[in-house]
Design goal:
Layout: E1 8-10, E2 13-26, H1 65-77, E3 85-86, E4 89-92, E5 102-105, E6 115-119, E7 130-141, E8 145-147, E9 156-158, E10 165-171, H2 178-195, E11 207-216, E12 226-231, H3 234-253, E13 261-266, E14 271-277, E15 287-288, E16 295-296, H4 299-307, H5 313-322, H6 327-334, H7 337-348, H8 353-371, H9 382-393, H10 399-412, H11 416-423, H12 431-444, H13 446-453, H14 460-470, H15 477-489
Parallel strand pairs: 12-13
Antiparallel strand pairs: 1-2, 2-10, 2-11, 3-16, 4-5, 4-15, 6-7, 7-10, 8-9, 11-12, 13-14
Helix pairs in contact: 1-4, 2-3, 5-6, 6-8, 7-9, 9-10, 12-14, 12-15, 14-15
Length: 490
């Protein structure tokens, strides 16, 4: 395990930053945590609100089994303790988008206990690993949403989000740099998407982070922390940490004190600003929710959750590396679940792992970036890609011809074999034809031939290029090299 060397340089020396993240991840489910109302994103305001969500008198919450299942599966994916007995609590506070006047959450007995994530803050050094502890995952209901842009003097309330199931994933204060926090959030998002418990769409608010930051002189006790609420991208989390750490250092070195408070991040300026003083647990007057029995999980339910887990990123990455794929490429291929599934389908179609990884990370990803597509929208299927790689492996196509075929595949969606046949792009390994072309090349370039035979061996590449050009790039390079060496030896 590696330790961060990141420091804030102040007038009085170096300062260390201490970071913890509380990630709110919307649970993937068709209904809310305690009601049957829908959860689809983008619906018209207040069209997905049940009587329970609106806190009508006499309405009783009923836990959604799927939401509990998804949270348990997430806990298992981070090697966390699953608590067979857990309980819901009421967190009391007033806000205009909270119809009940309280939020049903879990404080004293969460569904999921301690776990961890191993992260690599430096993509170029994936073997440098930092373990980040996770304190708990508790399940809670989301609040509604205030809409301030619908009227010049009034705010409207949309309760579509009210009652949606959230997992709050609380880390230990184990991160010591923006890079570590970024790697942690990226890894966590990847796991949630592999598991299928959250779609990870931070731009839509289905995953967001509260960022806890404090600073201290190295080796000293933790300082007073601030919490920056609802940061909705990995990049913004890293920016918020850097700004907040520097702000706190400036305050302390100027003789001031850090106030425990809640802050907001402005992505346009990259700065944080004060929102309100930070409440403690007692301010919320937590008590057990009298309308909900404790959750008790049996072994059959846990076994079903465990059996439903897919191969997770670390295991998949290790499998790729064992097949000869470089650690860097394995990391790229496993970072997003869609890419990993596509690549697995390519391997299942018979492609050799190393050649497949090289082609996917360079040719395919390059083309998708160039055309603004996601891998889910790739016009080339894994089966077609495997066929293209097979044509290279058996000598039908050279590397340059394969690139030409791939470009046509992107445009037309046709199979590579059909493109090769229709456009006459098959590579030739006919020794006689290659010998004839090489003889013509040597005859046309007597000066270069004399220089080569006089010891200027660098001209070999010139003759290869002239031969390939004369044959329209269709000659087998290996055969060209063999025949050309014999001809030049004369």
């Amino acid at each position: 395990m590696t330790e961060s060397t990141y420091r804030i340089q102040g007038a009085t020396g170096e300062w260390e930053v201490v970071i913890g993240l509380e990630v709110h991840a919307q649970v993937t489910s068709n209904a809310k945590l305690f009601s049957g109302a829908a959860t689809a994103f983008g619906a018209e305001p207040n069209t997905q609100v049940s009587l329970v969500d609106a806190a009508m008198p006499g309405m009783l919450p009923v836990p959604n089994r799927e939401c509990i299942r998804q949270a348990v599966r997430t806990g298992m994916a981070i090697d966390a303790q699953i608590n067979r007995w857990s309980r819901f609590d009421r967190k009391n506070y007033f806000y205009a988008d909270l119809p009940q006047g309280y939020q049903i959450s879990q404080l004293y007995h969460p569904l999921v206990g301690e776990g961890h994530l191993d992260v690599s803050p430096d993509d170029k050094n994936p073997d440098q690993v930092k373990r980040i502890g996770i304190e708990r995952i508790h399940v809670e209901q989301d609040a509604g949403k205030l809409m301030h842009d619908q009227h010049p003097t009034k705010s409207y309330v949309d309760l579509n989000r009210s009652g949606v199931a959230l997992m709050e994933i609380v880390s230990r204060p184990d991160m010591r740099s923006p890079a570590e926090a970024g790697a942690y959030l990226t890894k966590l998002r990847s796991i949630l998407r592999y598991v299928g418990s959250c779609d990870g769409n931070m731009d839509q608010g289905s995953m967001r982070a509260d960022v806890n930051v404090s600073v201290r002189k190295p080796g000293e006790p933790f300082g007073t922390r601030t919490e920056t609420k609802n940061v909705n991208s990995v990049r913004f989390v890293m920016q918020a940490i850097e700004h907040e750490a520097k702000r706190q250092v400036a305050v302390l070195e100027d003789g001031g004190a850090i106030v425990q408070e809640t802050r907001l991040f402005n992505p346009d300026t990259g700065q944080t600003r004060s929102m309100r003083s930070k409440e403690d647990a007692q301010d919320y007057r937590y008590f057990p929710d009298p309308d909900l029995l404790p959750l008790e999980l049996d072994e059959a339910f846990l076994d079903e959750c465990r059996a439903s887990l897919p191969e997770l990123p670390d295991a998949k990455r290790a499998r790729y590396e064992a097949a000869g794929i470089s650690p860097y490429q394995a990391g790229v291929l496993t970072a997003e679940v869609e890419a990993a599934r596509w690549f697995d389908a390519l391997l299942d179609a018979g492609a050799a792992p190393v050649a497949a990884a090289n082609w996917t990370t360079s040719e395919l990803f390059g083309a998708l970036n160039r055309t603004g597509r996601d891998i889910a929208d790739s016009p080339v299927s894994p089966t077609q890609a495997a066929e293209l790689l097979a044509l290279v492996a058996d000598g039908t196509l050279s590397g340059s011809l394969a690139k030409q075929v791939f470009e046509v595949m992107l445009e037309t969606g046709d199979a590579p074999a059909k493109i090769v046949e229709d456009r006459g792009l098959k590579q030739t390994s006919d020794t006689g034809a290659i010998e004839a072309v090489i003889a013509e090349v040597l005859a046309k370039n007597p000066n270069q031939l004399e220089q080569y035979r006089g010891g200027k061996e660098a001209l070999f590449g010139f003759f290869v290029g002239q031969t390939m050009k004369a044959m329209g790039g269709k000659a087998n390079p290996a055969v060209v090299n063999d025949v050309l060496k014999k001809a030049l030896a004369g």
